[in-house]
Amino acid sequence: MRNRFFITAFACGALSIIAGCSVGPDYRRPAALKSEPMPSAFTVPTDTNNVGEWKTAEPSANVPRGAWWEIFGDGELSRLETVAATGNQSLAAAAARLEQSRADLGVARSDYYPQFSADPEYTRQRTSPNAPLAPRKTPPAQGGVSHTYNNFVAPLNMNWELDLWGRVRRQVETARANFVASADDLQSARLALQAEVALDYFSLRELDQERRVVAESIETFRRSLELTQNRRKGGIVSDLDVSQAETQLRSTEAELPAIDLDRARVLHALATVCGQSAINFQLAVGPLTNSIPGVPARVPSELLERRPDVAAAERRMASANAQVGVARSAFYPRVFLTGAAGFQSISADSLFDWPSRVWSLGPSVSLPLFTGGRNRSELIRAHAVYDETVANYRQTVLSAFQEVEDQLAAQKLLASQIAAQQAALAAARHTLDIANNRYKAGVVTYLEVATAQSAALTNERSYIDLEGQRLSAEVSLIKALGGDWQGNPSKGEATQVSERN
């Protein structure tokens, strides 16, 4: 009996040792672009010098991407980024999803090991006198006798799947890849949150600047109206001049509520992003920052590898590839080693006596003979899911190229547009000075002054809008690159994931 036990244990152990094969394809990262080689460099329209070298992608979203917002030198923005990092609920949900994936990985790994359970049991039972007894040689089986007795059982059960075909290993690969993808999703949510805070903040400051300019213009128009009214009393100008000056003042005053409404909406959005109630959230009026960091002439294109969405898409390919192996393993038999050991007795006093011991040990095999096409359909589905993840990965890479190209072009072209707008604003202000002098000299009517004032106000608001667009483009470029181009680590920012690859 003992020899049989050791023979069975040895045979099962040998099977588990030699089981080194895993069905299904081993993962090899597909090409990022399907029908063309990777571009050799970033290019920017109208500026052939502003390029960045490219190399084969090695997704690495877990590297520190820096507290990039500090390059703008705005303490209030840094404060809001800190508030959002601790209060945003979408970020908290992404962190919770990461913990779920970590737990799923632990569940998958548990199948590597034997599963033990204890099922102690006590029953008191009576047999029927009319039930047949089990055949015995001596004494002969007899019916008509009932028995009432106790049954005490204290077993320890064991069940262990021998992973001969790598089904468990492929499941662990799937769980590990999903876990890393969840970590990348968390980084993606964090980067998107940081960018959204910066974009909302700069939009708010742009509106503050625009409101200041409009309010100053209203004061100027009010003084112009008073001057025109005084000149009308002196008979120097006509009622038409007064009417034109008042029309210009009132129409400009009507623009303030619209600006205030836009500011309120942006402020409420910023409050929500920061995880605070929009009811009590306030932010003092402040200037639009002039600290716009210049983009290097050659942006290192390997920074694009830090994009967490690219890394997450790549890990989901690995997960789907492992699932193909899981689906293929369903065509092979599953071998289990089961056992039980413990004590059984009709008396509690003798339950743990050595003669009361019981045990069993042996393998079992589950062989799929006919499944009605289920296994084949599951395999086809697994291949289709993998093909979908490959397409999603390539689309993510294409979108990443597009976003970087767009924002690099915006940096160049907005800078040129701002320079031209500055010149237009200077010319409009000079025209206004000339019109005011000519009006005071009685050479022209107020219409010429009103036209010059409106042109100056329009050009100044356009200039502010372009400055806001340039800041937004800077933030969008940082987001497109997966962080700033300096790579400074932020405090406590990166989620450390040791399970990658």
What does the model show?
This protein has 501 residues and is α+β, with helices and mostly antiparallel strands. The chain has helices at residues 2-18, 75-87, 89-110, 167-233, 239-253, 255-273, 308-329, 374-440, 446-481; strands at 41-44, 47-53, 115-118, 121-126, 148-162, 334-345, 357-366. It has one domain (2-24, 72-283, 302-328, 342-481): Outer membrane efflux proteins (OEP). Helices cover 55% and strands 12% of the residues. Strands 3, 4, 5, 6 and 7 form a five-stranded antiparallel beta sheet that branches. A hairpin with a 2-residue loop joins β1 and β2 (47-53).
Short structural summary:
It contains nine helices and seven strands, in the order αββααβββααααββαα. With 501 residues, it is of the alpha+beta class.
